Amino acid sequence: MAKTVTSKAKPKKSATEIKPVWWKRLRHRSWRIVKSKPFIIVAAVLVVLILINSFAWQPIKNPQYGVSFSVKYAEELGSDWKANFIALLDDMHVKRFRLMSYWDRIEKSPGKYDFSELDWQMDQAAKRDVKISLAIGLRQPRWPECHRPDWAKKLAKPEQNQELSKFIEATVKHVKNHPALASYQLENEALNGWFGECTSVDIERDRLAQEFSMVKDLDPSHPIYMSLSDQHGFPAGSLVPDKYGFSVYRVVYSTQLPIHFYMTYPTPTTYHRLRAWLINRIKHRQVFIHELQLEPWGAKATKDLSIEEQNKSMNTEQMKFNLDFAKRIGQPEIYVWGSEWWYWRMNHFNDSGPWDTFKQELQRYPG
After folding, report:
1. Which helix (H) or strand (E) holds 337?
2. CA 327 → CA 60, 320, 335, distances in Å?
């Protein structure tokens, strides 16, 4: 006869005993971290910053808006750039512009300068008592960021820099007495090495300093603004312009990781305020927003995006949010980004929502 084995029932383990060893260690260490002084200090600082951001740092009451406008980008979208610019002047009543002086548009052949496009814009502005902040140099807003003429691309770097210097000199001499000119913006995001068809050798601090000194000597009566490398740059060098600019973007299509996706920048207004405060205390200069995102940043060029895809990174509600976000940063001078897109969307898609949204904002703050 087979021997019968009677199994004893094992007592049930408590919920605590069921947890694996690693969980016990993690919970113990986590609690130890929470009780630690550094954690308490960091948490307290974050709470204070949130309270300061919510109560002490109120939105700017009278923002001074400027609008960036690029002939190149208006043409890329298929718009009549002159009609776009006149609409901004006469329908929207923009009072401040950032305009471009692209090297490849003005000096298509060596030593032959054609300022007719820029002259037309500045003359139209002057007729309406509108002021211009003029981007100058190699690196200027809109793709490909570095706007070399084809003939200059074939030159060795020293010769190319010489020709660039001649171009900047010619530009400053041409515009410095124009009644619409208010300031220069030298080398847009000059130290930004991750965006645009610019190479690492284009980031030359010595050349930047030489350009700055040359422009100051040629035209000491107009201030020179310079923008930081991106949303996170800090001016650590010895070159000190009259004002520093930084960009503010919120929703973009990120391609920096293996998985591409729409992301919202995690930087709060507190971060931008503290950075502006540090620049003011260390460099003794004011800060302005040279580029506030009010247009899409999608997976493809905007002209190739459907209206639904455009709305994923920019729509009227996002525009309002970004405008409110910028005002809470506390810097009065704000140059917005997207005027060509508002006009194109209004005419190509029969959707005046973005155009009307910023127009209404200007009506609230006409100064």
Report:
1. strand 333-337
2. 5, 11, 12
